[in-house]
Write a structure and sequence with these properties.
Number of domains: 2
Strand content: over 45%
Mean pLDDT: 82
Low-confidence stretches: 1-35
Structural class: mainly beta
CATH architecture of the largest domain: Sandwich
CATH class of the largest domain: Mainly Beta
Shape: globular
CATH topology of the largest domain: Chondroitinase Ac, Chain A, domain 3
Helix content: 10-25%
Length: 176
């Protein structure tokens, strides 16, 4: 098959006009198209795990670790709460947030979470928008987009949430 014909076939499939898959065709074509159409977790490997935390009262407060932070507003908590931030050793730019030792925690009011990607040395990160996703920390499956404001100057993404869990930065795919 000529490269021009293959390109036309791939373009036709990408636009949704493909017929049933041909068993003789290479298995990489369709999954490659599907994988490149959505967001993908930001790859930024680290072999080190960092953890920290602090006590926040019903009056609010901020807990920070390695450029990551959680800002709790006045009334966001009903009582003193220990907030934990963990940046696990991972190939992805992810954090696990917890409160009072719980993996999942809900606030009275939304809190502002900032995830730093300053450790990422890739220069092309300024070319694509970045966003935060709620993820399954074990499988790294993308569960829910959290959005966020990507500050290219500080190399961080900030977003509002009313619950704690695992979060990771993802690269948005530009529309074709």
């Amino acid at each position: 098959m000529t490269s021009r014909r293959r390109f036309v076939l791939l373009l036709t499939c990408a636009l949704g006009a493909c017929e049933a898959p041909n068993p003789a065709a290479p298995a990489l074509e369709a999954p490659f198209l599907m994988a490149s159409s959505g967001p993908s977790l930001l790859i930024c490997p680290s072999n080190d795990t960092e953890s920290g935390g602090g006590l926040v009262s019903a009056l609010g407060g901020t807990v920070s670790l390695a450029g990551h932070s959680v800002q709790v507003p006045l009334g966001g908590l009903l009582s003193d709460t220990e907030i934990q931030i963990t940046e696990p050793a991972s190939q992805y730019m992810e954090v696990a947030l917890g409160a009072n030792g719980l993996e999942h925690f809900e606030f009275e009011l939304p809190v502002l979470v900032t995830i730093s990607y300053a450790r990422c040395s890739r220069s092309n990160l300024d070319l694509r928008p970045l966003e935060v996703w709620y993820i399954d920390p074990a499988t790294h499956e993308l569960i829910e987009p959290m959005g966020g404001i990507d500050d290219k100057l500080t190399r961080s993404v900030s977003f509002w949430t009313d619950h704690f869990s695992g979060y990771a930065i993802a690269e948005s795919r530009p529309p074709r």
